[in-house]
Amino acid sequence: MASIGTIIGPTTNNTRNYKARVVAQFLGINLTTTPNFVMNVDNQKEEYLAKYPSGKVPVFEGANGLSLVDSSAIAYYVASQAGSDSPLLGQTAEETAEILQYMFFAEADFMPALAGTVYPLLGYMPFVKPSHMHSEEQLFRFLGVLDAILLTKTFLVGERITIADVVFTCDLAMAYTTYLTLEDRKKFRNVTRYFKTMINQPAFKAVVGEVTLCVERIKPQASANASKKAEKAEKKAEKKPAEQPKKAEKKAKEVEEYDDEEEEAPKPKAKSKLDLLPPAKMPLDEWKRQYSNTTPTKPNAMNWLWEHLDEDAYSFWKVEYKYNDELTKLFMTNNLIGGHFNRLERARKYAFGNLLTLGKDDDNMVWGYFIVRGKDIPEEVSDAADFESFAWTAADHNDPKTRAEIEDCFAWEGPSLPKECYDGKTFK
Ligand SMILES: N[C@@H](CCC(=O)N[C@@H](CS)C(=O)NCC(=O)O)C(=O)O
């Protein structure tokens, strides 16, 4: 697929530039970038200012002659290139309105509060304590609002990732890398879970790379000549092709460490490889029927499984939620499993499993086992939007200890469960 155009601006350490590129990665759209762009040099050139008088980045030049400014508008345009039913855009007027609501919340409320808090610390503007404190108060207020929204949701709109999530996550990245300490991350635990889920999506990783969370906040450079320092920092930035002053970058480990990866060419979606495997002696549907209709599960249904299992056709996997320490209410944990199963829909034909909610309120975990067709984690599973939030470990079902765990897991009871079983869900 030919490139739809060029996003012009610095390709590293610039979360505004990431938005459209992450969208392009999600959709397999080819977008050209400008890796040699020098911030505060190239956007100050006469020819740039003639086209884009505000001198801001990023901007977009379409292969069809379209010219756009504003990172969210560019991201929206890229998302629209997947057609009117683009998976990242709204499918109804209501969804579109909700998506816009969150994009505006991110840009018009959250970003100014974040910038007012962090920019003076990075040397982008003079540090004036009352103004910094006011911005910080707003920042925490908006994080609280977002945290309440994400209490019962995995993504902002509906049950899937939309452009609103891409934009908000890019904006959150600066907060999480420069300002939000472990204590803050615990306080806004739903936002933190959401941010980690998003940032671990392959489309984000391909553009942004590994994100290093803030260890310690950058200290204010408060002094009478703060504006002079800001000026100096700007001059430094002009000399060097980096957007942040080197001093602040070095001083704080907390500044983003992003890879400068080029976008990969879009990959065509293949049909399931699993359909090409030799037929299994035990069809998965037959096991699903046995599991549903045979009581008790232990030993009757499980004995059926061990007798009929086609060892060459299937593999077993232990599945654990990576952020168990952030779970609170049991019913919410169980909802989280339900949401995950919705997103595993493509794997329905090739997988069976149980994920259990174990423990009590404020001390619980997601734990379970899956049987999948083939010997690897199939693409139908790893493609689920929140797959990265779960650890999948290959399990040897012939090992007696593992076999006992699988049996107890599928029966939702037994001595090998790590905590008391509150509830669970069966993926079948
Ligand atoms: N709303 C715009 C804001 C763009 C913006 O402020 N970009 C910054 C860099 S992240 C910039 O160009 N700063 C240079 C300047 O203001 O002169 C967007 O999202 O694209």
Automatic annotation (TrEMBL):
Domain EF-1-gamma C-terminal: 270-428
GO MF annotation terms: translation elongation factor activity
InterPro entries for the chain: EF-GSTs (IPR050802), EF1B_G_C (IPR001662), EF1B_G_C_sf (IPR036433), Glutathione-S-Trfase_C-like (IPR010987), Glutathione-S-Trfase_C_sf (IPR036282), Glutathione_S-Trfase (IPR040079), Glutathione_S-Trfase_N (IPR004045), GST_C (IPR004046)
Chain ranges of the GST N-terminal domain: 4-86
Region described as Disordered: 224-275
GO CC annotations, alphabetized: cytoplasm; nucleus
Listed Basic and acidic residues bias regions: 228-255
Domain GST C-terminal: 92-221
Record key words, sorted: Elongation factor, Protein biosynthesis
Database matches in PANTHER family: ELONGATION FACTOR 1-GAMMA
UniProt-recorded name of the protein: Elongation factor 1-gamma
